[in-house]
Amino acid sequence: MRHLLSTAELSRDVAVELMDTADKLRQALLGRQVRKLPTLRGRTVVTMFYESSTRTRVSFEIAGKWMSADVVNVTAGGSSVGKGESLRDTALTLAAAGADCVVVRHPASGAAHRIAGWLPGVAVVNAGDGTHEHPTQALLDAVTLRERLGGDLDGRRVGIVGDLLHSRVARSNAHLLRLLGAEVVLIAPPTLVPAGIAAWAGGDGSGPLAVSHELDAELPALDAVMVLRVQAERMAGSYFPSAREYAAGYGLGEDRLALLPEHAVVLHPGPMVRGMEIASAVADSPRAAIATQVRNGVHVRMAVLYHLLGAAEEVA
Amino acid sequence: MPAAERRERELLSSADVARTIARMAHQVIEKTALSPAGAGDLVLLGIPTRGAHLASRLAALVAEFAGAPVCSGVLDVTLYRDDLRRRPHRPLATTELPPGGVDDRLVVLVDDVLFSGRTVRAALDALRDHGRPRTVQLAVLVDRGHRQLPIRADYVGKNVPTALAEEVGVLLSEVDGRDGVVLRGLGGRAG
Hints:
The structure holds two protein chains of two kinds. Chain A has eleven helices and nine strands.
């Protein structure tokens, strides 16, 4: 693996290996006084965030630091991007300054792919590109589901609810979960279902993919429900009449939690808008694995950095 | 070197392996002056893959001969290796420390073959991140020489002089279906 740009290009073997590595890292660090591994000593990881982020940026930084890499953070606001520098020039600058790995989040879909093409010899990780993909989020969700459900995701049924149109998390998860053999049900109002969603059913995934507009009808059969944030910042038009109407139709409240099977897990990639797509009581209930997702996010990102930087370079 | 020309010579049979591990268990008891009261102080930590199985076998025998239970565990050293960037990706193994950790205890690291000494160096570094043992010792089933670091074992099952190009294979029933130690290589020494 030279880059991690999308879940669509992962093989099942590599995906499982990354997830297993994350589990081993969690276990290796458990109960230790010194949460520091020497593995990536002398390697430099630059995070390049053109969109705001708390958990992704912080967990990449912690992941790099726990493996002894030097981590440098660049944000669009505080860099020469504000002076009009192009994405390519910024990327070339970071490579020339000595980055071994660039972690990039960008509002334009495909930004990470472009950077990977511009920087030979630098590993590129996509930390979210527009409405396209967010592969490490999907990996940490899968690790969390495996942990909570107690085993492989083969044959499990996972609902992804909400703003599918603007969600890179939904796409990455749909690919990865199906690759791992799970059934995926995408649930959203018709206005928030992207055109060409049928194409999501392509690829190597073995699990089936369904689209539904009725949340209540789907809940009783789910092993997990993943609630997506309504991305108001990406919405130019009006996709639903009001926040209250959205919450009434697609928000996960306590009444809907009761429709889920006992063992079912609630995930949210964050940041949450409480009262909109998820009720406070649900977010804080023991059924929700939101803090576990964040914790696993650090281990998944450690695993990704280890795979990209912790071995001899693969011959292209 | 074509695989068909590689010769394999048995150094230890299944019975030899059992005898050797039993002897090493007695040596551990003797060298650490182990009493039933002090057995809780001893931790045998195996280095995956085969070292881990050796450690649990050795712990069972030490416990049997000393008449008190002995802790064993597994210490993966992959993340501490100094050759990660010279080799293809290495998958990680599980680390399992016994309850109570390693602080102020007598830790015996256990591995199958002692060669360059680099794995043991990695293990010492890993151990330091898990705590501060009172003493650290090393037990290996086979010492094949060719050290690249100033490291020696406290307990050696068998010393085997080897050529650099040769390969020492430790077989354990848990992993390989049978016990044994074989020397693989070309020409003279083997066969």
